Amino acid sequence: EGIPSGLPVDLIALQDFMKRRAPGQNPWSTSRKEADIPEFQSGISNGVTNGETISAIIHNTNTRSGDYENLKICPRPGHADYAAQVKYGGAQNVAGGGRFSGRLTAPMCIAGGLCKQWLAEMGIQIGAHIASIAHAQDDSFNPIHPSLSAVLEDFPVLNPDVGDAMKWIISEAQKEGDSVGGTIECAVTGIPAGLGGPLFDGIEGHIAQIIYSIPAVKSLTFGEILP
Q: pTM (2 decimals)?
């Protein structure tokens, strides 16, 4: 809602951005395979925004609802299955995790991918890399002049040797039927001073609310991370 008309939209660049989160792309991601191709229903005409509500649909192609039938009686650890059972009294949709599914980050990426294009037109650049997975620690951005273009395309790290170590850690966890946690470092350049407001209208508070809506996020830090 509220996107002005006349903003250019590069749908090819958006699809490339969507591929970054699409599952089943490589051995170290989830095995579920989805193309994550958005079909826009309104808001974009002839390659530009038209002032209407921007709406899009992503069709699931790898659906196996039966895989989730037992979640009401056997909730998964680390998921919202038990909380959903208590909150909705068994009436919740358990297929794919329902409204608590990490799949809901896909529409976030549609909005984020579009906004990233428009922000770039204003000179604002956003970049991120995997800072750590288990005990493997990547190099850090320079806090004064972060080199966003230095992030590798295939596996988003700054140090390729550390990236190989991370892949090995993930593969070993997969063999054990386990998973490992990690951290991400994100940098934004070109932001004008004075955005946001005091206390409840601060930019960090708005960012934190959005970031914590992603189910897997458990911690968020602003500023330089010192060893």
A: 0.83
